């Protein structure tokens, strides 16, 4: 016989956060730069996109909620543990049958200090969410209401958009999508961002000047590594 589960469980790392300096290193950085600094990994799947397509960029520590499909109790439980600057991650285990949150949840999360909400489910109350002003990334819209009965977990490891997310990981999100930087790799990734930005700006300048074919590609085409059929 299975023991009756607790309605909510709070993980031991619910208070883990990167330093102010670590968070600052990712402010204003495009998600593409962050993925490049992690050698091509860390991006959530393309199903998760900004609800409002205006030009928005956020970066902050994750606080995770693991919900059962069609339930949001863990997301609501996170409201007590949110810290200013957090990105609330509301896992719906990919459930698309109802909304993973709406304008009231978004409003309460913003009141608690969240700078964004990310979920692998849809959302509802589009106009209300825009009025609240909390940037949200989700899989689309669904008018169905979720339950709030649990069980669920706050501050534990979740899978969202194909990426593992733990509380304290750095989340960077913009119009291109959402990227997860594991807590243990924050410093290493931040240290590479400057070089990535320099390379990108240099290539941008060359394209504006009329660049058609990058030198490495030209060299490859002219080498014995290319065969003309």
Automatic annotation (TrEMBL):
Q: Which residues bind Mg(2+)?
A: 124-125
Cofactor(s) needed for function: a divalent metal cation; Mg(2+)
Which GO MF term does the entry hold, naming one? metal ion binding
What keywords are annotated for this sequence in UniProt? Magnesium, Metal-binding
Query: Which positions bind substrate?
Result: 102-105
CDD domains for the chain: RraA_family (cd16841)
Q: Which Gene3D superfamilies match?
A: Ribonuclease E inhibitor RraA/RraA-like (3.50.30.40)
Instruction: Say if the entry is tagged with keyword Metal-binding.
Output: yes
* Record's keyword annotation contains DNA-binding: no
Q: Tell me the SUPFAM superfamilies matching this sequence.
A: RraA-like (SSF89562)
Pfam families given for it?
RraA-like
Matches recorded under PANTHER family: 4-HYDROXY-4-METHYL-2-OXOGLUTARATE ALDOLASE 3-RELATED
Task: Write down what this protein is called.
Answer: Putative 4-hydroxy-4-methyl-2-oxoglutarate aldolase
- Can you name the source organism? Litoreibacter meonggei
Ranked from the top, the taxonomy reads: Bacteria, Pseudomonadati, Pseudomonadota, Alphaproteobacteria, Rhodobacterales
